Every structure is written in C-alpha cells, then in structure tokens.
Amino acid sequence: MSADAGVIDLLGMLAYGELLAFDRMAADARLAPDLGRQARLAEMAAWEMANYRRLANRLTALGADPEEAMLPFVTALRTYHDNTEPGDWLEALTKAYVGEGISDDFFREVAQVLPEGVLAAPDRALVLDVLHDDGYADFAAGEIRAAIAADPKVANRLSMWARRLTGEALSQAQLVAQERSPLTALVLAGMSGGESVDVLFRRLTTAHTARMTAVGLNN
Amino acid sequence: MSADAGVIDLLGMLAYGELLAFDRMAADARLAPDLGRQARLAEMAAWEMANYRRLANRLTALGADPEEAMLPFVTALRTYHDNTEPGDWLEALTKAYVGEGISDDFFREVAQVLPEGVLAAPDRALVLDVLHDDGYADFAAGEIRAAIAADPKVANRLSMWARRLTGEALSQAQLVAQERSPLTALVLAGMSGGESVDVLFRRLTTAHTARMTAVGLNN
C-alpha cells in the first residue's frame, strides 16, 4: 500500500463524515424546541461544510477526486445513521455528543501518532483542525444536563440510547476496517511504536466513559 | 407605526427566510443524484446561515430579539414550504430557482426604494448583501436546462410545478401582508414616490417570466 492511498482514505472518510454530519445536524435542527436552538444547531451544521470544503480542497491538491475518495465510506456511515435515527431533540443531541466525541478522539489519536513520513505535517494539521471544536459538545452537554435535572428518568433512557449508538458504531467501524485496507494499514502504521490497537481502543473507551459521566449518563 | 417596527419585521422575515432556506436546501441536498452535487447544495445551504448570523446580529444591535422578530413569519413561510414539498431533485432546484428569484427581487425593490429616513443605510446595505448571489441561480438553471435538453417533456412538468409554486407563494404573501401591518406599511412607504403596488407587482412578474424563459420553462 502507498502511504498516499491511506491518507486519501483518511481525508475522504473525514470529508464524507463532515457532509453527513451537516446532513444530520440540519435534520436534527428541525427537532429543536424553539427557533433559537434551531438556528444554533443550523449554524453548527453550516460549520461542518466549511471543514468539508477544506478537506475537499486538500484531496484535490493531492490529485484525488473528493467524490471518489468519499464513496468507499458512504454505505457504512449511512447505515450507521439510518440505524440510529433520533426520535427527539435529546436523542439527536446525545447521538451527536457521543458519536462525534468517539470519532473525533479516534481521528485525533491517529493523526497524532502517525509518523511524518506517513502523514505529512499539513495533513496532520488539517485533520486536527477540522475535528469538532468544543462548542457543539458544550451545547449538547448543557442541554442533556438540563433535561436530566428537570426529569431524572431521562438519564436512563438516554444511557440506553447511547449504548445502542456505540454498538452500532463499532459494528460499522469493523466493516470499514475490513473493507478499506489502505486506511486500516495507515492506522496500524501509527501503532508501530509499540502501541497496540487494544491500547488505543482502551483509551477511546476511557474517554467515552468520562464524556458520559460528565453529562450524567451511565456507560 | 414606528419605522423601526417595520425594519425589524423586514430583518426578522429575512432572517427566518435564511433559516428556512438552509433547512430546505439541506433537505433537498439528499435528493441530489451524486455526492458532488449533494456537497454543492449543502455548501450553498451553509452559506444561508452566514447571512442568518449577520441579520440576527443586526436585530440584536437594534435591541430586538432575533427569535421574536422571526416568529410572526413562521406560519406563513412553513405553510408555503409544507405545501410545496419537492418530489425530486429537479423540482427542488426549480422551487429554489423560482421562489428565491421572486423573493430576492421583492426585497431588493423594497430596500432600494425606501427613503433613508425609513431604512437606514447600513440596513439597506445588509438587506441587499444577504440576498442570494447568482451562484445558486446559475447552478439551478444549468441543471434545469440540462434536464430539459435530455428530455424535453421535463419542461412541461416543471412549468406546471412552477405555476403551483407562484400561486402558493402569492397566497402566503397576502396573508403576511394582512397580518403584519408594520411590514406592509414599510413597503407602502417605499411606494410613496408615485409608484403603486401594481407597478411593483408588474415588475416582479416581468422578471419572473424572464427567469422562466431563461431555463426553457413557460409561465
């Protein structure tokens, strides 16, 4: 495998992730209980497209077609979203909070550990930069905490929902890992400094549990 | 009526129009025949939110609450969109091309004719600036023309669809005019230089017909 194929896979998956995050957040904005929150979520969705544009431009600069680079990830990511359609505003926020938390952690780890020869500095900077800033997580966390404070039973329902989300995400991630050897090889290359995939996985789990606890949900 | 109430109505209606245009274009992006077009429409939708932000900031600066300023227009605009749900990609593009064309023409006329004492220069500049640029219209026009070239029967179907859109838009516009006296007074104030609403209406119709002809549709 050439390092470039893995990097293009990485950027392509991130680009499609942005496009799909836009799509989902735009749809979720309709579930908002008032116009102010609807606008806030819509603005966050719009921000994903700015990141999409940067990734698409970088793919083009690397000689790749953004559409072709995204295509291998369409089925897995769409299946994940179709299987985890939020039923209301709180489920939508929990899904984004949990799902983007894990996915951002994963890409941050990968970008940080890959050696310069595999992931060039501008690509590393771009990947770290397009990961969601804390604005969305803070907004979602505030809404979830307030809902649990108003009705403690909500915690149980959302905890179960979050477990369903992580189960479905893991299942689709496995499919991607099996089908996309360039991306898998890239991730494994990042582990070559003695780190095993297990260690990465454990770190992601710890961070996920901390995020759940922070808003009053049980893992 | 104070001039300010009319201006706040104007900015509030534009702000909600941006939020709803975002919502509709984001939904329409799902109808796109490929990822490239989907991304293109999603990027145009995201742009609406940048305009929304500018209008919301201006409303706040004028001492108005953006959410309250938008609320009076929710029912009419939502009814319009709910009654004109596009069935496919071409209907979605035709709707945006026709609907935003008329609505932009209307707001441009109003902003241009209102005297400085009624609409302050910064507000006039803002209104003119947030009106859709030609990027979207050009994109939609290109798609519609290509579809008609590939299958001339499409022209008839889309022409009928466009007539339904303008009929529904007129019906909702009348309701807004009746219910929102500050906005209606503002528009009428702009006509005081001898212009009648009829003349404005005729100009809007002429521009609409030209837009239809330009893409091969019949009025």
UniProtKB/TrEMBL annotation, chains A, B:
SUPFAM superfamilies according to UniProt: Ferritin-like
Organism taxonomic ancestry: Bacteria, Bacillati, Actinomycetota, Actinomycetes, Micromonosporales
Annotated source species: Catellatospora citrea
Protein name stated in the entry: Ferritin-like domain-containing protein
Pfam families per record: MiaE_2 (PF13794)
InterPro entries tied to this protein: Ferritin-like, Ferritin-like_SF, Ferritin_actino
Domain (Ferritin-like) ranges: 4-188
